[in-house]
Amino acid sequence: MTSTNMLGDLTTRCEFVLASSSPRRYEIIHDVLGVDPLRIMKPSFEEDLDKSLYLHRPLDYVADTCRGKAESICSELADSGASPARPQVIICSDTIVVDGEDRIYEKPQSHKQLIDNLHYFCYETSEPVRVATAVTIIVFKSPKEYKMSHLLDVTNLHFDNRLPKQFIERYSLFPGAMKAAGGITIQTACGAMVSRIDGDYYTILGLPLNKLVVALANLEI
């Protein structure tokens, strides 16, 4: 089924590029907003910023990571030396999970880490878990003419400590759990662990839909 184009003539005046390999982000841009065609580029930026430099500044960490991804895309396009027939609107994003002590959680590196994360969120803290998503939008016209804009959104998740621990064990076997920040895939059975969401649901999926659409609607092309 073809989705309705929610961005109007912006998609005819510009070429849209998603700088991410995330299926959820693709679904938001392509399926929810109806952007078709949608080109995919994968940033070359190594997501290895030193977290010790961001103590108690997790939002700066995710913003800088996102900016690094965007700059790597700009460098790649500039190095090509080519100017696109239409301006390119490039959407870069990065998502982290943050606990009440400002510790940063990205994709789990092991099955044990995944389970430890979820046990902590459900049973060892009474504070909500924050999901922070940073977005950089690039309007690229030529190697010498492009500009960036940035946005950030945070959604709070309240985990339920009444959930049986066996539920986490079963969820941990879900292949997609290892591919999400903190191991949280809210659109799957993991959503049963959350009793309340404060904020934009789409921020948890990897793109804050409300702020993104507002930013796109106000782009100066």
UniProtKB/TrEMBL annotation:
Domain of life of the source: Eukaryota
Cofactor: a divalent metal cation
Gene3D superfamilies (alphabetical): 3.90.950.10
Keyword list, A-Z: Hydrolase
PANTHER family to which the protein is assigned, alphabetical: BIFUNCTIONAL DTTP/UTP PYROPHOSPHATASE/METHYLTRANSFERASE PROTEIN-RELATED (PTHR43213), BIFUNCTIONAL DTTP_UTP PYROPHOSPHATASE_METHYLTRANSFERASE PROTEIN-RELATED (PTHR43213:SF5)
Protein name: Maf-like protein
UniProt organism field: Nakaseomyces bracarensis
